[in-house]
Structures are given as structure tokens and as C-alpha cells.
Amino acid sequence: LAAQRxxxxxxxxxxxxxxxxxxxxxxxxxxTRADLTAAMxxxxxxxxxxxxxxxxxxxxxxxxxxxxxxxxxxxxxVAPRPDGPYVLAVEVAVERIVTAAVGLxxxxxxxxxxxxxxxxxxxxxxxxxxxxxxxxxxxxxxGSQGAVGVGVSIPGTVRRRDGFVEHAxxxxxxxxxxxxxxxxxxxxxxxxxVGNDADLGAVAEHQRGAAIGYxxxxxxxxxxxxxxxxxxxGAQLHGAGGYAGEIGHMTVNPDGPPCHCGSTGCIETYxxxxxxxxxxGVTDQHGPKVVAAVFAEAAAGDRRAVDAVHTVATWLGRCxxxxxxxxxxxxxVVGGSLxxxxxxxxxxxxxxxxxxAMAAARAxxxxxxxxxxxxxxxxxxxxxxxxxxxxxxxxxxxSLAAT
Amino acid sequence: LAAQRxxxxxxxxxxxxxxxxxxxxxxxxxxTRADLTAAMxxxxxxxxxxxxxxxxxxxxxxxxxxxxxxxxxxxxxVAPRPDGPYVLAVEVAVERIVTAAVGLxxxxxxxxxxxxxxxxxxxxxxxxxxxxxxxxxxxxxxGSQGAVGVGVSIPGTVRRRDGFVEHAxxxxxxxxxxxxxxxxxxxxxxxxxVGNDADLGAVAEHQRGAAIGYxxxxxxxxxxxxxxxxxxxGAQLHGAGGYAGEIGHMTVNPDGPPCHCGSTGCIETYxxxxxxxxxxGVTDQHGPKVVAAVFAEAAAGDRRAVDAVHTVATWLGRCxxxxxxxxxxxxxVVGGSLxxxxxxxxxxxxxxxxxxAMAAARAxxxxxxxxxxxxxxxxxxxxxxxxxxxxxxxxxxxSLAAT
Lengths: 403, 403
Known about the structure:
globular
């Protein structure tokens, strides 16, 4: 039996509304009181009181827009306070760590990018870098109210419950309790949340990127590894443990090449960057610059590079057809270096979709490029970190003031 | 901005609670007032009033259990009225049409099974058969309050919005507005809902079958065709148009055999019944009896049949590994003739899962046989048909009384 609540206390209603109001402002960047009144179905005085609460908490500010030529009293604009609290959003990728201070409304106040190599990829070294970046960012934002949470994107399988990284093959991590490990080293007992890069990218592209307004979205992130994040009916699809969306490890040919995951013929072995380089005849180098060079050659018409991109695009289309058949999304956002494959050879991608996806689902799907460019996972990590503040703004601010 | 409601009128609370109470009784078959009080978090007098309302609507009955040896006053048991309203649940399969009268609590009061062949599979003929079965069932349930809705399971892609069948290859249907077509012929303007067989099977196995208590479930239904239904965090995953879960048409080898869907190397071409028969060397016959004969031979140790089952089991394991990687379910229920493949050669299925599914997700999944045997889709069709009554019991009963 599903338990249910019937009585709702006035204080709970206020908290719920405060949370909803802050979510609206966070999502839209800024809104007039009139917008908020219309959208939330509350009267003007209730909205006024809630906005005052958020102002008192130091989270938002109000201003009267100037230069309006419409008649009548202009509606006040409610916006995040530029010096309000921020979150630390971290993207741990194979070649770099990006740490950013992101404010309400999704504004990236500042960021630090550090290139990393093998030794720097050890979990303790990554945590140390993040702690150092956090201090660097705090120095750059002296007037700010400080950080309220940390969100970290990892290219691997992450247990949702506690941010335990099961396996991040391209970082060479196995069974790393990264959320706990980083939380111990962060000052002020900041809450640390860890998520899979593609899952976070899906949230960000749905919330602020190319897939705004679609309820069913798949974000496919492909560079060295290939991962997926799913938005189903407006919410993230986690699966039982948080491992849903491992699209890169769908078997598309049981007799195909070995994959680092232990299987063979995973789609990652056909569309990951190593496959592209192999097809282009590059066997002795790897990394973003080498991949970019292949794309540049393909754009310039070099036969071997064009063929390599075509091969990857064809397999990508097969991958997307499987995605369409499984999830029936309205939009698939293709990010990472696979975005460049779509740019260079969309025709081959779409042809395989036409051929292999069920007609009704195929007719309803668009293949999109990311709206947030390289920042999908980073912005998604910020959204993850903002979760607590958005859920209970007053409790969060009170508990921060106490530390 | 997501709209939200704040004020809740007392009448809305009563309606909501009436609906929740009826859902509980429907799901569990019968419950004591004490169970209901505990589970719904309402006081005894409120539960008493709500139960009285459902009694007055003719939906439930109360009785005092006899033979209790516990001390104290026994709690009244609330149960669906055996002569209460029922729904017509219909399973249209390739070889047969099953129409059943199903009461609240999921009780199948009576059913009629009709074998069908090519001509009988025309949409008008199928609708005619259902109308005739409905009348036959009504005659057999003379004291009942009659049918309150119709749910139909179709082995094909169904547009969720209006029950339009896009493509049911094994019925040879394309673009058939079956819900509208059947509704026109049903007496008393009964509401007709149409769903995909595997989607409905998933709902039924989750609600009343092998997957009770799991929040993330995949039901894979395989006979001539192969389809899937997904339960994610307790709710059905529909996708944008209702086409999610077309697992049978995942490409698992682009160079594989042609599939009726227009693609090649769909998993259906490796695990559908035609593949089993081909592997067993049966090329001139088909149908359930021929398939059953191959299974009987395999069970008896016939080399060729054993090998055929092994081949299908291996491909089935690959299919399930893809399912685990995409959806991270706790349970996969394998139904249709594929259930027999699991019974005969589970080792091969699980071996491919071990090899190809991501470790963390693999560790958390069980492969189960259906709890409802052949009736998963039929019971799911009943659940679909009960939707309106469960959502607003009083409105529904009132509108029926008016017709």
C-alpha cells in the first residue's frame, strides 16, 4: 500500500511554495512578479510575501525594469542575487578537471580548468585538485555568500544512493567512494553529490540546453567512452541503482571487438574515439587534438578521414535507432566528439535511423546538437549540487549560517 | 514554469481518498479496515465513511471474518463486490482472441477463447468477435452490474493518446484506429482503451505477478514477435508517443537476417519463434503446437532441439544484457514462449548476462518467469480498462447509472 498524506500544515505549504518559487527563478534566470503570479496560481500578496522571504534569505533581489514604454506600473523583476550563494560544479573528464562556481539561474561566475595525465587521475589527486580549485574560486568571489554544495560529474557508473563510483574505466577507477572521499576534504562540511557525466548532461540539456520543452529526451555523450542519460516524462530515469542509460555498452555485434567492460561488440567499440582513430589509420596517438585533426581532415575532404567519419556516423545511426526503439524520445542530444560526427555526416546518421527505428517513434524524434556545447555535464553537476537548496531554501540558508 | 495548485478543497480530498482506497482494495483483493487505516494514514472514522461511500456505490462489500481466535473485536474486511461492475479485458494474439470479464481485485469471472486464422484477423472481424464475446459474457453474469470499460491488448505499436494501432505486423495491421472502431460497435458507449501487449504485461506482472514489490521492471514478451514493457520507478515508461520498449527491434547485428520491420539483425530475428524453428530444422510448419513440440524434444534431450534452444537462450541473454544496461531493472520477467527457453536453458541466458551487462547493474537484477502465466497481457488489459473507475469511482458509477 502506498502511504499517503492528507492533512497539510500551513507551514508546509509555505515551504513548498518557497521551494517552487526559487525553482522557477533558478530555471528561468529572472521573472517578473506578474509571471510568477500567473504561473504559480497564487495571488499577488502571497507571491509578494514569498519573494520577500527569498530576499531576506539573501537568495534573490528585486528591481524595477527601466525604459518600459508600456502604460501602467511595471511589474518588479525577481532575479538571483549575483553575490548570493553558489555551488561548486566539477567535471572530471579523462584529460581535464573543470571546477566552476555556478550561481542560481545557472550563471557560471568563474571556472578553473586543469589538464590531467595518468598520475593526476588518482582519486586522491583529483580530490586534492578540486579542493584547491574551490579555494581559488572562493578567493575570486570575495563578496559572495560562499558555496552551498558540490556536484561532481564522473565518466563512469555511479551508485546513486551515495556517490560511490563503481567503475570509471577511462580514469582507471574501480570501487572508489568518491563522494565520501571528497566530502572529508572539503571545508565547512559541504554536501558532495556525484553523478554520471551523461546522466548530468541529460539534466542540463533538458533544463537549459537544446532539449528545453521536451519531456522525453536522451542525451548521448561520446568521446573516449560513450554514455547515455535519459529524461522520461520530465524526470531523470535512474533505474534501480542509478545505472540506467549505459547505452555505450549495448551489444550491437556479439562477434565485434573486445570492449574494456569485458564484453565484445559494444557500440562504444564502434563509435568511441578509438574507433574513429583506428578507422582513420591513426594507431600511435590519441587525445582531443588528434581527434580534432581527423575531423579537420574530414571537413577538408581527405578521403580516409571522410570514410572514417562515415563509418562512425553509420554506427551512430544504428545506436540511435536502438535508443529510439527503447525510449521513444522526442529529442536525442548528441554531445562530446560525437557531436562533430553529426555535424560532418548527419545524412548517414539519419539514414540508419530511417532504416532501423520503428516508423512511429522515428517520425517523432529529432537529433540535436548540445545547447551547452562542452558544458552539459558541468552544468548538470551544478543542478545536482543545487538540489538541497532548491528543496528547502530556508533550512539550507539557516544551516549554512550556523557553520 | 510548471503550474501548481495550492488550495485543495475538501471535496477534492474526499475524491482523492475514495480513489486511493479503491485502488488499495483493487490491488490487494481484500483488506481489513485496520490495514486501510494504517496504510492510508487516515483515522478510523474517515476510513469508515469512505468505505460506506464505496459500499453505497455498489463497488465493495464488508464482512466480519469468522473463526478468528485472536482476542478483541475483529476488524471488518473490505472486499470487491462479486456482483459489482467488471471490465472487458481482451487479448488479441496471433492465433487467438481471449475476452474476459474481470472484476475489481483482478478476479477473472469468466472468459471466452476463440482461435483465429488469417481472415479472422481483419480488424472488423476482430471487433465483431469482441462484441459477440462481450454479449456472451454479459449473459453468463446476469446478476452483475455490467461492464464499465474495455481494455484491449494488441501485439503491435499503439499510439497511446487514442489507441490507434500503427503497426501490428503479425496481425498484418497497419494504421488501424482500433479503439475508435471497436468503441463504435460496443453497446452503451463503453470506453475502449488499447495498449501494446508487452506494455500491458509489464503492468500486470508488476501489479499482480512475479514483479510485485519491484519499482524497476522490464517485461519481455516473446513468441512470434518480441516486445517489451518497462516499469520505471513504479510507473509505466511510455515515451513520447507510447512506443517505448520496442526491445524486439534492437539491432544486435547489422548484417543479420531481414526483419519484417524493414531493418536487419533485430533481436527478434534471433529469438522469435521463427528463429527457434529454423534452428531446430523445422521449415514447413509453425504455430504454438510446433513450437511446443520443439521444446518437448529439447526437454527429452534431442540433440538438434537442445542446440536450437541453446542458440536462442544465448541470444536471449544478449538481449537481456542490453536491457540491463539501458534500464537497470531489479527484475526482468520473460514471458511468452521465451519463458520456456529460460526454463530449459537458464544457464546460457545468465552466462551472457554475466559477460555483457555492466557489473553493478548485473548484480542487482533477477530473471523471473511470469507470475500470471499466459495471462499477463490479458490482466494488463483489465488494468488499463479499470483506469477511469479507479480514478473517479463516484463519477464513473453515476455516469453509468445515467446510460
